[in-house]
């Protein structure tokens, strides 16, 4: 195992400093050769993670023909953004308007923020110059059980479908739980009072009535993913009370499956960009997650499409500020991000060069950065004063990612 001083020397040898996003072009060019570029983040509330990912995304779309962006967000909310940037949503007056109205469930700041407004504005303008299929914006997450069922009902009503009755029965089954996932999870896990039969009946009815035969219409993609969310969200909430690890796996398998559906919609040669937390896009097999039986999107996509078709870029920061909350559901606040702890990945990058920098892991240097080292991860719930006791993931960086972007001093993003 390399000593810290040796790792610092190797970083000095291979890292590239940058002062503006335009200087990331060599990294973008390398990433552009694959089917899916996975862009991470070490928190859900750091401005630079969003702005740098946005610039990489623009380059991949404009210069390398990438077709869509898929993010760690709910499908129904992101689909409204998708409609807006494609000129199909006249009810929204601006990017800020669609984000405010669509991302109104906690933690809304993840997507309803000033940084995303600028990206949505750019996507809207870019799509106006395009013919054929326009650039899409989609959500991969599994949390939107009630919203997805409502979208299914709306779709079936417009088609006067025989499956509508089953959809209404499924919603009626979930009504007593008042849109509170934990309430449903407790009922399903401990009292055997669940809605799995109603969900399965709904899905069977949809397929039996051939509601999703065509792959040409985006409204049918919307229906297909909402049906997938309904099934997997029920499974997720049913499981989360009793098995954290299995519920994590349900969620990441769902995100990988949703990504595959979107890829199929855009065609065999389509290329996509994924925005998710490092814990989702970095290969779980290169961390202690694997020993706990956990999988993630980075692992599943490399397994399904081949490592040569995936390029995962991790992100991190040495110190700064971040938007997060002290517990689930409470108002967000600006919190300090302490200096990286001794011996951490963040600290050795800082020692090597106290500046923004990136590393590309190649055949030449991959073995150098294969030692296990702690790497910071901040969630929507964060306690800076205790972060040394649980916010560092033991990682083999060159196996977890294909490249890494380090922000020396970061700032909190700007919620709407």
UniProtKB/TrEMBL annotation:
**Taxonomic superkingdom:** Bacteria
**Mind listing the GO biological process terms from this record?**
response to antibiotic
Record's InterPro entries?
Answer: Emycin_Estase, Hydrolase/PRTase-associated, UCP036794_erythomycin
One of this protein's Pfam families, by short name? Erythro_esteras
Descriptive protein name: Erythromycin esterase family protein
Q: Which organism is it from?
A: Niallia endozanthoxylica
